């Protein structure tokens, strides 16, 4: 009799436990959603946190022009706008090193061509220094701000004039709306800088010719009132002086 009561109590406990198990399994309301990450889910990749390792890898790959490593770092979660110790982004490093293929990958990933470093350089602005037409073309799809100013208060066209980058000046005047007569903090336009800081040789002659054809004002003087023609004559740049005299 005692054994029968024990068996009955045991069966009851088992039944209660089974009911609790079923209730726990079905307690959550079925709203049709599945919160489990699916295999190969893109959202899982998008939410992957950025790591210092992937960021450093992206900066290095951009500087070295290693496009495979650039893509790998981006897949690993690296931010296109990560900065090095001098405030330079991967795209700016690629532009400085003229790594065009790497720049194209970064532009396609949404990198900002206007991000400026501690010296106010940006990927677009440094193309005026390097004179790289290929890099300029690679950056145009990113819609850079052509009015963005460097630490001297100048557009990319002004250092291009200084360095005699004729092919670059031609490309920028052809494909952008840059202000050909912008005046920097020194009181110089691209035309004045090409004369004052140029050497009067063939490259700078071509730059002067291109700027004049592009609408540069030959009478726009510096802050001391000295005109481009007066500067050319002072330096003995006869060919440039001739171009200025013949300019309408």
TrEMBL record:
Database matches in PROSITE patterns: ANK_REP_REGION, ANK_REPEAT, PROKAR_LIPOPROTEIN
Region described as Disordered: 27-64
Protein keywords: ANK repeat, Repeat, Signal
InterPro entries according to UniProt: Ankyrin_rpt (IPR002110), Ankyrin_rpt-contain_sf (IPR036770)
ANK repeat segments: 53-85, 86-118, 186-223
Keyword set includes Repeat: yes
Keyword Nucleotide-binding listed: no
Name assigned to this protein: Ankyrin repeat domain-containing protein
Endpoints of the signal sequence: 1-27
Protein origin, superkingdom: Bacteria
């Amino acid at each position: 009799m005692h054994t029968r009561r024990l068996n009955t109590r045991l069966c009851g406990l088992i039944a209660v436990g089974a009911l609790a198990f079923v209730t726990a399994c079905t307690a959550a309301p079925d709203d049709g959603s599945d919160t489990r990450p699916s295999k190969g889910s893109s959202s899982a990749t998008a939410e992957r946190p950025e790591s210092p390792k992937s960021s450093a890898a992206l900066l290095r790959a951009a500087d070295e022009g290693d496009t495979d490593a650039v893509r790998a770092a981006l897949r690993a979660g690296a931010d296109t706008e990560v900065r090095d110790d001098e405030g330079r982004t991967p795209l700016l490093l690629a532009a400085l090193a003229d790594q065009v293929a790497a720049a194209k990958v970064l532009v396609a990933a949404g990198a900002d061509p206007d991000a400026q470093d501690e010296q106010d350089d940006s990927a677009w602005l440094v193309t005026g220094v390097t004179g790289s037409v290929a890099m300029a073309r690679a950056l145009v799809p990113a819609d850079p701000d052509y009015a963005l100013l460097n630490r001297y208060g100048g557009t990319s066209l002004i250092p291009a004039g200084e360095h005699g980058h004729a092919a670059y000046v031609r490309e920028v005047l052809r494909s952008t709306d840059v202000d050909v007569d912008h005046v920097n903090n020194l009181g110089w336009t691209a035309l004045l800088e090409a004369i004052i800081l140029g050497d009067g040789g063939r490259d700078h002659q071509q730059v002067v010719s291109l700027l004049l054809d592009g609408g540069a004002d030959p009478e726009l003087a510096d802050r001391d009132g000295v005109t481009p023609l007066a500067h050319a004559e002072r330096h003995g740049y006869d060919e440039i002086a001739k171009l200025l005299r013949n300019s309408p």
